[in-house]
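for the recovery benchmark. tokens below, seq after
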């Protein structure tokens, strides 16, 4: 019974990945008014191939330090988000009147179709649903896709069967880390992109590039999933003994807080954008970077390699 549950979870998770990516492609074709963008669905093929191989060879189980399914999901949906973000930044002034999803009434009006129609067919229903969804503001659509993407990355990792050598304790730690990472990434993209001026298209490319780079934290599990402490000996190297802490520091410095801090400093200095929230989050990133360097210093200071030649020759009296 447990085998069939794991098998079903592996399939359902990847189908959800494909569904959200498909919604992203559909939104791109609608915004661009060009059906050739449906060719982006070919990006789903590697995920389908990975699903077949994983189900056949690994019975649906994920890998220990790396998740190919999550990486291929990112590859399938990130191009759609790039196109939508760039299109929105280039056409802010010409966007038509739209409905913002900032109240329950607006949300209900989006999801409820006209019930006065007597015999409603599936085609009529889908056409009405498409008309309702097309009235949502482009920025709300993009934000919703960002939010669904991050939530699905966390839930998807939770649903995927555990890889060999991964404990539930390690998985729970990883999911908690993912929640914090997702909140920081969403805040970075939504807040920083809202500061972009109309004459700064290059800043959009910089922000999206850093956002894409930061998303690589989700397929990698090196900051939590490592060898057991009881298997370590006194002669182990610094990297072996403190691999979890070191990988966590590296990810923060080079994939998340470090790049976020650089972008925010560039936004404030070069692009002359200044407000309280931008300064606050820049200070927050700066503190995280400094604390990570401090943590690395403490780890290196406390590490004392044992001189095995000396201990072996010394005989207690």
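predicted aa per position
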């Amino acid at each position: 019974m447990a085998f069939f549950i794991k098998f079903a979870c592996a399939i359902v998770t990847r189908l959800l990945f494909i569904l959200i990516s498909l919604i992203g492609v559909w939104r791109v074709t609608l915004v661009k008014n060009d059906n050739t963008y449906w060719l982006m669905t070919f990006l789903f093929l590697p995920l389908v191939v990975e699903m077949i191989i994983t189900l056949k060879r690994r019975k649906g189980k994920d890998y220990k330090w790396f998740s190919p399914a999550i990486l291929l999901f990112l590859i399938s949906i990130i191009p759609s988000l790039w196109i939508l973000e760039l299109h929105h930044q280039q056409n802010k002034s010409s966007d038509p009147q739209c409905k913002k999803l900032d109240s329950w009434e607006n949300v209900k009006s989006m999801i409820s179709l006209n019930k006065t129609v007597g015999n409603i067919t599936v085609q009529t229903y889908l056409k009405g649903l498409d008309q309702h969804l097309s009235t949502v503001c482009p920025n709300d659509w993009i934000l919703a896709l960002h939010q669904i993407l991050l939530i699905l990355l966390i839930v998807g990792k939770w649903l995927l069967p555990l890889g060999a050598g991964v404990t539930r304790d390690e998985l729970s730690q990883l999911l908690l880390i993912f929640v914090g990472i997702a909140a920081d990434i969403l805040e970075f993209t939504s807040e920083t992109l809202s500061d972009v001026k109309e004459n700064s298209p290059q800043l959009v490319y910089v922000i999206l590039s850093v956002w894409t780079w930061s998303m690589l934290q989700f397929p990698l599990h090196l900051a939590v999933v490592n060898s057991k402490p009881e298997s370590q000996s006194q002669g182990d190297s610094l990297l072996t003994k403190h691999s979890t802490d070191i990988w966590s520091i590296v990810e923060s410095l080079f994939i998340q807080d470090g790049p976020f801090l650089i972008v925010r400093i560039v936004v404030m200095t070069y692009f002359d954008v200044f407000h309280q929230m931008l300064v606050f989050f820049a200070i927050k990133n700066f503190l995280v970077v400094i604390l990570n360097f401090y943590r690395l210093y403490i780890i290196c200071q406390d590490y004392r390699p044992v001189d095995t030649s000396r201990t072996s020759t010394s005989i207690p009296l």
